[in-house]
């Protein structure tokens, strides 16, 4: 047989620059069997197909198609005149190696078959069937030499057993060529096709922080997996990882558009959602589990599995208000070298801090000091999540315009309001009389006790003096995060680059 390894094909971008197709060779590693073999990967916009190399019959006579019952008469000097291969003990079927694979009957062990054929009577009736595909252990034609073995011992069941069944000590002569003899070719055959919609990619060993070297796996919504895909270099692995991730994200955005088409303006899914690792501490150390995150309307959702139906959105594991959360990227792991920064951002190079498992992570800080830590696969994913969160918070602030909290000061019950247009206002809860008001720009600092009390420092516009206001809240963390969200949205609304990227059409700028 001759086989020419296909050259990897370049990605074909669409008009928006998104990767649609890609093909190439990789190694597939099965952790259960510890086997590794070549596979051909074919990436399309909707699916990743894995092809395995096998031998197929390209020509045969019509009579070879159906089952055949054959009566063999034992010869006094030549035995049955056939050879067999395989056996259940080798996890392959027993076949007559001169024909094709897959005896129609039940699983039989190799030596059992040899014994049955040797001790049968003068006539043996067997049923055989010809199949289109031929297993890899039949790649060698009948009579071809196998691996080096001790010829004084029994032959390997994966090679011809004619010496046993012919009843003599000489190998049979190779068959004469015939026009009706089947011809074989090595071909890449589709083994599995994985849909990419809501699929996820992982470079980490399941449930751990251990990063695989030049490896990753793709898992689909229904749990199907590629097993472990291995590549020769980090660059090749990253190229495939980025290509698959790009197509997954592209399909995600299309799905979001469909959902938003049938949702109200206040219940839109914002920019990004997807499967992601959640890191948590346990008694045995740090463990990881996949979670499905979504930014929709005023909330941040954490699911155990992706929501498929409208009812599934009510089954979230946890839900948080966007304006009362804080998005935090772990560490400033980008190097000072601007070129290295670009390579890290594109996922072409690993960060040195990946060794401590803290890079490419972000945390969601929520009320009462609680937090959730998540990990992404690429720096581009981290940047996308940060931008998506900023946009979702900005749009939510624009939608609600103000947020009020009950608080107390010196025994009085007050109402503290954060307003996008006017800034900070504090009024009496009962009489609604305004006690004081400051713009966002007048807030010069703050301090808190980490529990319930906060001191806000404002600069008086007339006296230019710093005035301190001390307030007490039931959930201080949520209030502080909300203040941060409104100030960030105010700053973003005055940033020309942000306004351009968000198609922002201007708002009240007089505060």
From TrEMBL:
<keyword id="KW-0963">Cytoplasm</keyword>
<dbReference type="InterPro" id="IPR011993">
    <property type="entry name" value="PH-like_dom_sf"/>
</dbReference>
<dbReference type="InterPro" id="IPR055108">
    <property type="entry name" value="Syntrophin_4th"/>
</dbReference>
<dbReference type="GO" id="GO:0005737">
    <property type="term" value="C:cytoplasm"/>
</dbReference>
<dbReference type="GO" id="GO:0016010">
    <property type="term" value="C:dystrophin-associated glycoprotein complex"/>
</dbReference>
<dbReference type="GO" id="GO:0005198">
    <property type="term" value="F:structural molecule activity"/>
</dbReference>
<dbReference type="InterPro" id="IPR015482">
    <property type="entry name" value="Syntrophin"/>
</dbReference>
<dbReference type="InterPro" id="IPR036034">
    <property type="entry name" value="PDZ_sf"/>
</dbReference>
<feature type="domain" description="Syntrophin C-terminal PH">
    <location>
        <begin position="400"/>
        <end position="494"/>
    </location>
</feature>
<protein>
    <recommendedName>
        <fullName>Syntrophin C-terminal PH domain-containing protein</fullName>
    </recommendedName>
</protein>
<dbReference type="Pfam" id="PF23012">
    <property type="entry name" value="Syntrophin_4th"/>
</dbReference>
């Amino acid at each position: 047989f001759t086989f020419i390894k296909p050259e990897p094909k370049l990605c074909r971008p669409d008009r928006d620059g998104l990767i649609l197709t890609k093909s190439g060779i990789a190694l597939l590693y099965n952790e259960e069997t510890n086997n590794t073999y070549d596979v051909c990967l074919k990436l399309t916009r909707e699916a990743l197909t894995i092809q395995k190399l096998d031998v197929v019959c390209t020509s045969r006579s019509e009579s070879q198609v159906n089952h055949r019952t054959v009566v063999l008469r034992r010869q006094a000097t030549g035995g049955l005149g056939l050879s067999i291969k395989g056996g259940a003990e080798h996890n392959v079927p027993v076949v007559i190696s001169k024909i094709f694979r897959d005896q129609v009957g039940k699983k039989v062990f190799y030596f059992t078959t040899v014994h049955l054929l040797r001790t049968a009577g003068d006539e043996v009736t067997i049923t055989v069937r010809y199949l289109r595909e031929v297993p890899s252990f039949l790649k060698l034609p009948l009579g071809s030499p196998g691996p080096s073995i001790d010829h004084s011992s029994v032959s390997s069941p994966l090679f011809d057993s004619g010496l046993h069944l012919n009843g003599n000590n000489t190998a049979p002569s190779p068959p004469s060529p015939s026009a009706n003899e089947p011809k074989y070719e090595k071909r890449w055959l589709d083994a599995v096709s994985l849909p990419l919609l809501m699929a996820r990619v992982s470079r980490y060993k399941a449930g751990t922080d251990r990063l695989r070297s030049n490896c990753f796996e793709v898992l689909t919504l229904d749990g199907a997996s590629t097993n472990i895909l291995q590549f020769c270099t980090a660059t090749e692995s990253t190229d495939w990882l980025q290509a698959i991730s790009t197509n997954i994200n592209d399909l995600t955005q299309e799905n979001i558009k469909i959902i938003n088409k049938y949702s109200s303006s206040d219940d839109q899914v914002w920019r990004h959602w997807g499967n992601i690792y959640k890191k948590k501490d346990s008694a045995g150390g740090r463990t990881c589990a996949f979670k499905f995150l979504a930014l929709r309307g005023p909330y941040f959702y954490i699911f155990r599995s992706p929501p498929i139906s409208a009812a599934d959105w009510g089954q979230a594991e946890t839900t948080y208000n966007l304006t009362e959360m804080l998005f935090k990227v772990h560490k400033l792991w980008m190097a000072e070298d601007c070129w290295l920064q670009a390579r890290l951002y594109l996922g072409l190079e690993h960060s040195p801090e990946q060794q401590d498992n803290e890079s490419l992570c972000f945390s969601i800080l929520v009320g009462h000091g609680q937090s959730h830590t998540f990990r992404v696969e690429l720096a581009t994913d981290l940047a996308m999540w940060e931008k998506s969160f900023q946009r979702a918070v900005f749009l939510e602030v624009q939608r609600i315009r103000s947020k009020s909290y009950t608080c107390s000061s010196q025994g009085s019950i007050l109402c503290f309001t954060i307003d996008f247009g006017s800034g900070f206002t504090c009024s009496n809860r009962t009489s609604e009389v305004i006690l004081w008001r400051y713009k966002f720009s007048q807030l010069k600092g703050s301090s808190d006790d980490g529990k319930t009390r906060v001191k806000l420092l404002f600069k008086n516009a007339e006296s230019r003096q710093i005035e301190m206001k001390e307030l007490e809240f039931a959930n201080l963390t949520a209030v502080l995060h909300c203040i941060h969200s409104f100030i960030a949205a105010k700053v973003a609304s005055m940033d020309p680059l942000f306004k351009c990227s968000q198609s922002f059409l201007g708002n009240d700028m007089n505060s």
